[in-house]
Amino acid sequence: MEKTTLHTETAKAGNRNFYFDVKKSPNGTNYICISAVAKKGEEIERQQVVVFESEVDEFGEAFVSTLLNINTDSEQKAAGFKRGNRSIYFNIKQSKKNLPYFILDTLKKKEGEQERRDSLFIFQNEFKLFGATLARTLLNFERTNSSQSQLMEAAKKKYANAYEPWSKKDEADLAMMYSEGKTIEEMSNKFQRQPGAINARVEKLGLVPRKAVA
């Protein structure tokens, strides 16, 4: 299953374009991808950060805290949080012209691996536009999640195992039924899963029907 874009908000500030994409990952959870793209001569400069579903609420709170604490007198303590092996911070800085800006940093560190850092710079003239667009994105994220929850609830009423993880035994049984030429409807009834989920698992397992085997 490929990543799917569910909603996009765009904003332009000077020579930079911001893209706020609500996407659905292969495991069914949603996340937000924020990109800043600027053209410098013949080159394209891109900055990008990702906020996962479990981080969205704290991310919104940290952003509001950052906006409330920005001033032109001194650098403020970073607002942010840590969840699992990821940390997200809004670091307020001062430019050489004494103008405030902030850096949105996401850091990921696994034991035995080098730390990965993704950063997005937001400058003073972009604060208002960035904030308004982010607010719309967060609102649409909540609406998307709400709609998805309703769809999942409806699916589970018809298919008891809808959206549940596949066990190795179920995958083996699915492979056997598929090789025997069983229909998608028959397998859907057997495993209590949506026809689309059966097709997706068949594709993921690379199954070939018996009649097509030489």
Number of strands: 8
Quaternary structure state of the chains depicted: single chain
Instruction: Supply the number of helical segments.
Output: 5
Could you tell me the strand content as a percent range? Answer: 25-35%
Largest sheet: 4 strands, antiparallel
Give the overall shape: elongated
- Spatial strand order of the main sheet: 1-2-3-4
Q: Element order, helices and strands?
A: EEEEHEEEEHHHH
User: How far apart lie the N and C ends?
Assistant: 28 Å
Helix content: 25-40%
Kindly name the structural category.
Answer: alpha+beta
The residue ranges in which pLDDT falls below 50 over 5 or more consecutive positions are: none
Mean of residue pLDDT?
A: 85
Q: How big is the Rg? A: 23 Å
Account of the protein in words:
With 214 residues, the chain is α+β, with helices and mostly antiparallel strands. A hairpin with a 2-residue loop joins strand 3 and strand 4. The longest helix is centred in the middle third of the chain and has 32 residues. Helix content is 36%, strand content 33%. It is built from five helices and eight strands. Helix 1 packs antiparallel against helix 2 and helix 4 crosses helix 5. 16% of the residues are buried.
